[in-house]
Sequence to fold (219 residues):
Amino acid sequence: MSYKIAPSILAADYANFASELARIDASGVEYVHFDIMDGQFVPNISWGADVVASMRKHSKLVFDCHLMVVDPVRYVDAYAQAGADIMTIHVEATRHIHGALQKIKVAGMKAGVVINPGTPVEALIPVLDLVDQVLIMTVNPGFGGQAFIPEMMSKVERVVELREKGGYSFDIEVDGGLDNNTIAACAKAGANVFVAGSYLFKNPDLTAQVQTLRDAIDA
Ligand code: DX5
Ligand code: ZN
Fold:
């Protein structure tokens, strides 16, 4: 399965979004990861669909939107109009997860479902036939720069098994605390979409930093 690197612009310089996006484009990655936070589902507040729409004019990369907001179904049309390619929503934040994922697909986006570290894989089972992407959080959502939780790798392995058993083809994404060490464990467990924020942006040479992740995955 082909893999994708998804820099999280949560770790970028917000005063220079256009040049940050240009640097991401030039680094040869496949996705840009947008962390949408509402100060309710998670303590932090980031940005919303209008920012995604502005960024859309500057990049042709796949826009991978991770909504950490209460009742995300309210924003399906807004993200579709903003040009989001993938909209990923938390089971913990969504009253009717099945219907909400259907709505994302009807709106023309790929549908992703995500679980927090404290939520069991079982919560995903009823919607696995609907989704294009399953995201396993490897930190508690809300902030960049947190420590990777290695215990989440057994969840990734379990989702790989469920995908095989069901004959599905969704991607498996991991998000939080990824660096050139932890990403190897994620790849070994079977993830194929890798979100990285603080690790990538701490190096002014983003392209070189992306390469260290690819090397770790390939090793
Ligand atoms: C956490 C976000 C992550 C975060 C990752 O709530 O979902 O996408 O930006 O940042 P790092 O890679 O620094 O853990
Ligand atoms: Zn995220």
